[in-house]
């Protein structure tokens, strides 16, 4: 199921290309910021309650490797790097996704400066 979801977001939102634009303030990172951000994203998608829970999911061979990559971050690394990720590329990803959703008529016309989007749908791994 997680593989199917990964293919969907890659096809519909160009997820892998978007991850490639992420950067952080570390000098010589051993684990790319895209792997850290993807791990944090899938922590929410898979409804894991903590960084330690997603670390245990990352330890399962082949589970999140297509998305995160071969070098999987630990819980401490996720916490440390998320603090150092530069916010401008994240804002650009949100803008691009908003633009795509508007073109697909998934979002209504809104003349206000601020927008909020609530997503309701299938729960992948309910507990």
Radius of gyration: 15 Å
State the major sheet.
Answer: none
Average of per-residue pLDDT values: 84
- From the N-terminal CA to the C-terminal CA, the straight-line distance is 15 Å
* Number of helices, where a helix is a run of at least 4 consecutive DSSP H or I residues: 7
Order of helices and strands: HHHHHHH
Q: Look at the helices and sheets and give the structural class.
A: mainly alpha
Strand content: under 5%
**Total separate domains:** 1
Percent of residues in helices comes to 40-55%
Shape verdict: globular
Number of strands: 0
Low-confidence blocks of residues: none
Short description:
The protein is an all-alpha fold.
């Amino acid at each position: 199921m997680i593989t199917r979801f990964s293919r969907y977001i890659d096809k519909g939102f160009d997820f892998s290309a978007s991850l490639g634009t992420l950067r952080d303030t570390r000098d010589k990172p051993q684990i790319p910021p895209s792997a850290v951000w993807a791990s944090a994203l899938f922590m929410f998608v898979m409804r894991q309650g903590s960084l330690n829970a997603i670390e245990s999911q990352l330890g399962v061979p082949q589970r999140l490797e297509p998305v995160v990559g071969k070098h999987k971050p630990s819980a401490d690394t996720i916490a440390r790097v998320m603090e150092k990720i530069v916010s401008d590329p994240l804002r650009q990803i949100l803008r691009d996704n908003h633009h795509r959703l508007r073109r697909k008529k998934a979002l209504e016309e809104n003349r206000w400066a601020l927008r909020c989007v609530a997503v309701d749908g299938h729960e992948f791994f309910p507990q």
